[in-house]
Write a structure and sequence with these properties.
By secondary structure, the protein is of the alpha+beta class. It folds into two domains: 167 residues, Deoxyribonuclease I, Chain A, CATH 3.60.10; 121 residues, no CATH class. The chain is built from eight helices and 14 strands. The chain has a six-stranded mixed beta sheet with strand order 3-4-5-6-10-7. It has a two-stranded antiparallel ribbon with strand order 1-2. A hairpin with a 5-residue loop joins strand 1 and strand 2. The longest helix is centred in the last third of the chain and has 25 residues.
Length: 309
Amino acid sequence: MWETVYGGTAILFRKSIATNISIVASNNSRITGIDITTSSGTVQLLNVYLPCNYGDDESLVEYIECLSVLDALIVQSDAIHTIIAGDFNCGTGSRFFPLLNNFANENGLVMSDMMRLSNISTYISDDGLKSSWVDHVLSSETINSRICNMNVLHDAIVSDHRPLTFCFACNLDTTVADYSEGTSVPSVLPQWHLCSDAVLQHFQQTVDRLLVNVHTPFSLLSCYDTVEQFTALDSFYNDIIPCLRKACDLCIPHKRSITNQFNVPGWNTFVKEKHNDAMGRLIYFGLKMVNPVSAYCLMICENLGQNLS
């Protein structure tokens, strides 16, 4: 990534990975972006050169407008990971810093450079009398865990800014999703229509492996409608669903779940009572007529899509 003294930005990438790259249209000369297709989901990489703080209202408004553009790019993107790097013209003592910090928190980003470095300067005035830390790397938490080799190249003098470099590990082979064991991606939805036969087979094998550790209560094999049997059904259900979710996270391509005004926080809390009532009626009317295991499997099929989302 690169920025110029005239406000332009650029991102350079090798021709060999061009098929994994798509351009992000920011319509703003201060922001350049690309989407990188990886095995663990799309990574949105944005390079920025944000406005300087001149102490007036105009520069403040322009800074807020740029943050708004970045926010819109993140929300509207199908990418599930984000990296924003470049000249933010904002240090911890700047009046812009609370705005930047709020922006990062609202979009689930962390300041990867500040988590790894301390007491550094990325800007040094030509006379050497002034210095500040105004270049940063913001990333989503999953990407942050994969970032390494964060450094400031003090010997590379190409402008009054010193290059801030870092590496992040990713696999560009997208034939099969490759999530790390025990890792799940928050606020994403599985994209079943993108699954190849190989991905579905990998999902099936992973489910089989995880279900080996699930105990099947002996009481489920009988037809007695007892309280113990109802409790065993709930326990069996609660053991199976996490296995399906984990297998989905490990194997299935995902898409960021966009939050809007129609999403109701705590929805499961609101409908929990109705759900329990409906479940009780299902068991009461169906358990006497249907084998318990068959009735339970039917309930799993009806609720599988909702529980995996």
